[in-house]
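Appendix B. Worked example

We walk through a single record from start to finish. Start with the input: the chain for Pyruvate dehydrogenase E1 component subunit alpha, Cytobacillus purgationiresistens, length 371.
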Amino acid sequence: MASKTKKAQIDAKKQLEKVEEQFQMLQILNEEGKVVNESAMPDLSDEQLQELMHRMVYTRILDQRSISLNRQGRLGFYAPTAGQEASQLASQFALEKEDFILPGYRDVPQIIWHGLPLSQAFLWSRGHYEGGNIPEGVNVIAPQIIIGAQYIQTAGVALGMKKRGEKAVAVTYTGDGGASQGDFYEGINFAGAFKAPAIFIVQNNRFAISTPVEKQSAAKTIAQKAVAAGIPGVQVDGMDPLAVYAAVNEARERALNGEGPTLIETLTYRYGPHTMAGDDPTRYRTSDQDNEWEKKDPLVRFRKFLEDKKLWNEDRENEVIEKAKEDIKVAIKEADDTPKQKVTDLMSIMYEEMPYNLKEQYEIYKEKESK
Ligand SMILES: Cc1ncc(C[n+]2csc(CCOP(=O)(O)OP(=O)(O)O)c2C)c(N)n1
Ligand SMILES: [Mg+2]
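Next comes the structure step. The output line below is what the pipeline stores for this chain.
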């Protein structure tokens, strides 16, 4: 028979509060583009600040164009990115070319800015194998569709880097939904145990398709999940490029100093649908909620910040927009001009040495394709 303990041994409220109070959101630039946390300000030159804005504006255009190309049937799978530019691009901006990115399906912008040609990103969207044929020296893998799987791969890549004595880190992204997956916990735990140089980023855009983050976990923050893995975690304003940059930069330094991985939660929002495959966000979000988040827009606040410093103006922005449109036109043409993939291509890229049963099938398809 269950008996009552005389005195509770767990002060549940206090225990949780103690954890939660350590995960206050880091913000440097507020919604008005004013610096509110001077001491956390990253050391970036004027040119670097302009380059970061360039990348965010460019990527917003890429998102808009990708959505219309998808509607025209000229792209395949596409997961919109508008709203998440600070989380995506300021984190990649804190990396070096040697660092390795393991993206999820919404993280195509980061791998483009890490060196993947735009035409290949379009081919990946179309399901063409050339999209995953990553050029030598570009340290990324093709985006992961299985939610959270990249967290385990990242622990492995980071451990490999450590064993080889490389001065580089492995960086991965998942979403708020991804943080409920077993793979998420296994990845951060393993990397923590081996002090592997990894950075685990969770872009908390408040929804996993239509499931709100409040239904995802009883934890108040995703950042606090780091505690159980024995690694540091931080929650940052994911609409603030400077806060995201500062957090990733610090995590990278720790990793390179042999201090192991960090978990970074960025608070953000996706303005568009989950993907272009029929999701209708008006069924699970209110327009008030959308408006509230659009006021936090990363481009708006960073533009104000740069304009105040006389580092940005309309002409500059228009140049970036034109450049993005031109690049997209060229890249989509390159994707169109790429030879269509054949069944035999899929077989031959899969194996260094093809198994005998596939060899038979390969010959059959080769014969068919020659007609
Ligand atoms: C293992 C697994 N389960 C389910 C899915 C289907 N699925 C695709 S996206 C998604 C939601 C993910 O949400 P979140 O992690 O918050 O990322 P976001 O799309 O918001 O960037 C789900 C459940 C999947 N791809 N993989
Ligand atoms: Mg999400």
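Two observations about the output. Residues 46-71 form the longest helix (26 residues). The chain has two domains: 20-338, 341-371.
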